[in-house]
User: What shape does this take?
Amino acid sequence: MRGLDASARSFTERVWEIVRAIPAGKVLAYGDVAMLAGDRKAARAVGGALRAFAGDHDGLPWHRVINSQGTISFRGDLQRANLQRVLLLREGVVISELGRLEMGRFRANLRALPCYGALDEGLDF
DNA sequence: GCGGTGACACAAA
DNA sequence: ATTTGTGCCACCG
Assistant: This one.
């Protein structure tokens, strides 16, 4: 297996590393990040990891992470949602008027990203 | 250690 | 296609 050592860093740090590796113009679902981070079911915690980042050092393309339905998660923060939409459009990501994008076309290649033992859970992709 | 919280996912209705 | 309910996890009091 090509999984890295998950215990090397905290879940949050793993999330940051993975998100940092998402190429411009591509996106990933929270669930995808969770899987790569080694926890298939921790999609929700991924949001927390990015929340914790809020405002910190730039360089983390947090806007490239959306929900599995191909839409931006509002969760009450319209400010952030708008910014995220603009940043994605700026990278060439096509978003419909309903705020949805084609995952099949803009989803980043999982095999090209850091992976923390996701395969141990019997998953493959 | 326990219980709430939240940028989620998925199945069911 | 939409709306609910339920499961799951890391963080923070």
The longest strand of chain A covers residues 28-29. Residues 78-90 of chain A form the longest helix (13 residues). Residues 11 and 62 of chain A are 16 Å apart (CA to CA). The helical segments of chain A are 11-20, 30-36, 43-53, 78-90, 103-106.
